[in-house]
């Protein structure tokens, strides 16, 4: 079968011929790939800044944002049969008996760091015609989400974050009613999303649909389809070329939530300075090597203590986040059909993957489609 792999030794990224995977355990499922989204992580792997092949291999098959169709299932598989649509999670548990997170099936909270990640760390990914996976790592996709389900994995970043901050936003302030329904979690609160890439935009959609008064802040200037999207979901876009963080704080008032989706350390530190009282700051971007910046840690500590602030890092994601991402995709499709129709910038054949990954992304999400014309 064909696959796209990064070869760290020779610094090559190309289409390769791989042996077809086979079901070797009763709990395994054979998948035919349909859509694979590409993102900044793939670009980092293909520029050899990130990513590790499986032990003993000279290459890593990339691809972690997958939608697939089940073609065969092992004898012990109960939840899936041929024809079902699935999205796999990315992380696979470490083997240490003492890792309570992995042993409980929550490898996104792995303590040891010896987890593997398909298409990223020590496990081949999904940018291949076929793959085999264990049943427990797959999530069933309703058939009517076929066109957009490739967005599930990037959406789980915001879903997991919102799942965690819900508790902090609802149970921590003693004057709030902990029984507030989920759709109103953000009612009366403001959220500032940093970044207008796919993670930021999907995050803004999750926050806006949870009732937050949502702002998106990035460098981009209009006209831009991404800025149009922000307006279409009822959020407000502000360009960093037109307003500073201090201007933003003045405009928004108290900033209750910052959702960082850039991975830019300087930008994040500046934003931390304008986080409001009782505010939560969520970090989702993974910075590469960046210029050293000066900071005033005493001021940050003072603010965090005196304003009851929370700084939360989060990596995606467990089964709960995949389930809520699929529910939200369905909700988004009903609430903002025109927006959802623009999320996928285009579908391209496998052969174009290396150029698309290494090039400048156009539109919101670029997808490699195995049935592309
Ligand atoms: Zn990704
Ligand atoms: Zn672990």
What share of residues is helical? Answer: 25-40%
* DSSP strand content: 25-35%
Unique bound compounds: zinc ion
Largest beta-sheet details:
7 strands, mixed
Oligomeric organization of the protein chains:
single chain
Number of strand segments? 19
How far do the termini sit from each other? 18 Å
Mean model confidence by pLDDT: 94
From the alpha carbons, calculate the radius of gyration and give it in angstroms. Answer: 21 Å
What is the N-to-C order of secondary-structure elements (H for helix, E for strand)? EEEHEEEEHEEEEHEHEHEHEHEHEHHEHE
Class from helix and strand fractions: alpha/beta
**Count of runs of 4 or more consecutive helical residues:** 11
From the spread of the alpha carbons, the general shape counts as: globular
Low-confidence stretches: none
Model description:
With 373 residues, the protein is of the alpha/beta class. It contains eleven helices and 19 strands. It has helices spanning 40-46, 100-103, 152-170, 198-209, 225-232, 245-252, 265-272, 297-306, 319-335, 337-343, 353-358, and strands spanning 2-7, 12-17, 28-38, 60-61, 65-73, 85-88, 91-92, 116-118, 122-123, 130-134, 138-141, 190-194, 213-218, 236-239, 255-260, 275-283, 310-313, 344-348, 365-369. The longest helix is centred in the middle third of the chain and has 19 residues, at 152-170. The model has no long low-confidence stretch (mean pLDDT 94). The structure holds zinc ion (2 copies). One zinc ion binds next to loops.
